[in-house]
Amino acid sequence: MTNKIDSAYKFYCKHIYDEEKILLLQENNLKVAGFVPSVMWELFGAILTGRSGVGNVGADLNGWEVKSAKENSSFEYQYHLNTGAKKLHEDCLVNHLFLTYSEMYKNVIARAIKGENLANQFFMKWEPQYFSNYDSSIPSNARRQRFRKNIPFNYVETNGHIILIIKDSIMIERYDDTLDSFL
């Protein structure tokens, strides 16, 4: 029987670390970093956690928010006018899967943090800023279209629980018990 980490790694090998596609991008002088769209990272997260998507609004997966970023980059959160307040609250409750990748996708680290452990440091602090960003007393053309905030890479690196490490496209560490503790 194949477990979730094995299945996610197989998906990575076939659909994320795509050597043929990377070589074609390089041969045509195109940027490699960023060619894997966020929906593929969400699918990787779905396979890893065993949770499916929940639609267009709210967390990416049932009980999980999935974030991906290039190594040493922060993880961006966006909150929209009509759904952002509910999403900020939900982010305090769901687990967060942070996926960092190297420029050529040879290295990936999956870390998890419970939303309750991010709430005071981030989401609850962002809430007043969210409401002022969408203040209806300000003319609509003076308001920003999106409310964006970031969780720094260093915070995730220090506080995240490692689930999986891929180095040079080989899975070198896995923590099934850590993953299970979030499910």
Please specify the SSE layout and strand pairing.
Elements lengths: L3 H13 L2 H9 L10 H12 L14 E7 L4 E5 L4 H8 L3 E7 L6 E7 H19 L13 E5 L1 H7 L1 E7 L2 E5 L1 H7 L1
Parallel strand pairs: 1-3
Antiparallel strand pairs: 2-5, 3-4, 4-6, 6-7
Helix pairs in contact: 1-3, 4-5
Characterization of this structure:
The chain is an alpha+beta fold. It is built from seven helices and seven strands; from the N terminus they run αααββαββαβαββα. The chain has helices at 4-16, 19-27, 38-49, 84-91, 115-133, 153-159, 176-182, and strands at residues 64-70, 75-79, 95-101, 108-114, 147-151, 161-167, 170-174. The strands form two sheets. A five-stranded mixed sheet has the order 1-3-4-6-7. The protein has a two-stranded antiparallel ribbon with strand order 2-5. A hairpin with a 6-residue loop joins β3 and β4 (108-114). The relative contact order is 0.16. The model has no long low-confidence stretch (mean pLDDT 93).
